Task: inverse folding
């Protein structure tokens, strides 16, 4: 899609065209465009948020998952715990456990026992 077409699609989405929003989400997901998904998610679109979480997890983007998790998104927190566990990232699990996340605390104990 050309940049002018993309700009037009964004304009339509901002005017409330749900089909344009859906198309933007699909394009951003296909392109791996976290910034576009983040922008759509911040406007309150739950599908964009879900796609952002999934893409961030696939890309191993701890920072994005951390940002979403810290803002209260439990799905992002779950993905962050899963990714931190896969990476043996004890610091991240400890940070989450210290914030009261019991799943992170459990994972931390399991990794420490290994």
Result:
């Amino acid at each position: 899609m050309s940049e002018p077409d993309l700009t037009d699609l964004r304009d339509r989405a901002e005017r409330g065209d749900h089909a344009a929003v859906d198309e933007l989400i699909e394009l951003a997901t296909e392109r791996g465009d976290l910034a576009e998904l983040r922008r759509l998610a911040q406007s309150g679109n739950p599908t964009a948020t879900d796609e952002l979480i999934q893409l961030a997890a696939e890309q191993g983007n701890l920072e994005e998952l951390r940002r979403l998790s810290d803002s209260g998104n439990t799905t992002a927190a779950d993905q962050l715990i899963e990714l931190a566990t896969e990476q043996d990232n004890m610091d991240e699990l400890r940070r989450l456990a210290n914030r009261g996340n019991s799943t992170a605390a459990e994972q931390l104990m399991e990794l420490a026992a290994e």
About this structure: The chain has eight helices and no strands.
